């Protein structure tokens, strides 16, 4: 068990510690879960470790000013975050429909935080606690720090720093910058004087612009001209590197925001120190009567081993938040946490995951990144692995072996996603063999996302042939082991570049795989991603060439329905899509047809359910022996394991 208690959440908790005031009041849109997969817990424990008095105000009633005053005025500042996910992603689906469950709230209750939570909370703090400095951070602030496209309002919004009226914004993984800011506030500096901390953005005066500052197209320019928007985004994207990135300034009418250089990556010793802090490892006991906080279920017995991802998928926000440079914990640090985990009365012998944004990335892609940063305008894995890429799974394998040999550990799974192109790039085949033998729970989730090479190019993902090669390798290894294990592929509809032609191609692949996906991940344009820039502008910012974008809800529904063509409810959408794509050859009774003719559709039976034909096996049933892909429904990716990982925008899985 942990030796420390939860941080104070009310006045009574403060008084029990003998405190009359806090140094920092944390305000969050999530329930309070004291686990290192939750950004608010990490930053709070880091500051506590520096000797600061910290209180947590979780999901306050934003309609009541008194709710923000219950713990009094903090001495140094209020720290505000929307939570582990962008609040709009948390609230709405790709179809802009309200979600009915919030896994970051007690009992999964919906409606306990406002839309654009960071802005709302910050403005309420200004009213309730006048004069207190306001610092915003977390995924919502990080991804919305410049002028950005907001999918749900279909408009370009100003920097969140301006709309929130905050004094300072911490972006990325914020341990280093928040400690520096805290120490300077403690030393007597005014918040308006703290303008040069790495990993922060501040309101700025145009008269003070330095020589090395890059001036981006203004808010007014990107609002009026989509080409300017794409140009501004591409500059931001390529400056998000701690070694070669430069400060950037963007004007918003008479105001401006200045982003300092990104914070330097944590060393392994620094990462170890963070994860050695006295986290309680679960939700606050006040949530017990509501059944706890659902989000803890996926991470309570999982181990975060790394941060960052050099995969750099276009639709993933990690590049803009955690960055491309891998930061890893030592095996000893991970083993210590695993041993503590086994002491819990709730531990049943299974470690659910050992990973991070991408489980099999344990070190930077090349040594150059440690001193010079990542390459500009060049990816490590796309369109093919870089010649300087250093792929070696030996340390990760050693770690997995040591974990599975711990007392009380029955099984160690790898569930946070692997990059199969990186696995194939490793000449040593031990990893995939041991993965199949010891670390797959019958199914391995992988993320080809699509099968059209045109769409995959826009996604920044490896081509179809690479996935098929991995499928074959996975099949061969399991055959040698005498195991029946299957791949569960994540697939995405309506990504930029996907016309109905490509959507039909994906549907045909689903047919040939023999899967019956009950849930399909429809692309959600979230702030800060390259794919969202394409969605809004119709331009690929890497080339400045036009790209097709499926924007209408009807077309998005057709593309999604094509993947779920076996569902009778989707018949009309599938038929319309096939006719629009001039693929009437897929309407009929042949073995390659997706649906039967309309005149017989009133029966509600799919083509495989006609009398005399063996029914297609349904979700949850064992697949045919000849298939190596699971018949179980293709589920959505987990809702986020850390403040950064939560933002594939429910789109992410490598």
Descriptive account of the structure:
The strands form 7 sheets. A 9-stranded mixed sheet has the order 2-1-3-4-7-8-11-10-9, with helices on both faces. Strands 18-19-20 form a 3-stranded parallel sheet. With 654 residues, the chain is α/β, with parallel strands linked by helices. It starts with 10 loop residues before the first helix and ends in a 74-residue tail after the last helix. The chain has 23 helices and 22 strands. The protein is globular and about 75 Å long.
What's the short version?
By secondary structure, this protein is α/β, with parallel strands linked by helices.
Give the key terms.
654 residues; alpha/beta; 9-stranded mixed β-sheet; 3-stranded parallel β-sheet; 23 helices; 22 strands; 12% strand; globular; disordered C terminus
Write the layout of secondary structure elements.
Layout (H helix, E strand, L loop, with lengths): L10 H6 L7 E5 L10 H11 L4 E5 L18 E5 L5 H5 L25 H12 L5 E4 H6 L4 E3 L4 E3 L2 H4 L4 E3 L4 H12 L13 E4 L10 E2 L3 H6 L1 H13 L9 E5 L2 E5 L8 H8 L20 H4 L2 E3 L1 E2 L10 H4 L5 E2 L2 H12 L7 E2 L1 E3 L13 H4 L21 H11 L6 E2 L7 H6 L4 H9 L4 E7 L3 H7 L4 H18 L4 E8 L6 H14 L7 E2 L7 H8 L1 E2 L4 E2 L6 H11 L7 H10 L74
Parallel strand pairs: 1-2, 1-3, 3-4, 4-7, 9-10, 12-16, 15-17, 18-19, 19-20
Antiparallel strand pairs: 5-6, 7-8, 8-11, 10-11, 13-14, 21-22
Helix pairs in contact: 2-7, 9-21, 13-15, 17-19, 20-22, 22-23
Unreliable stretches: 602-628, 630-654
Mean pLDDT equals: 89
Strand order of the largest sheet: 2-1-3-4-7-8-11-10-9
Instruction: Please give the share of residues in helix.
Output: 25-40%
Using only C-alpha atoms, the radius of gyration works out to 25 Å
Q: Globular, elongated, flat, extended or rod-shaped: what is the shape?
A: globular
Strand content: 5-15%
Span between termini: 34 Å
Number of strands: 22
Largest sheet: 9 strands, mixed
Number of helices: 23
Structural class based on helices, strands and sheet pairing: alpha/beta
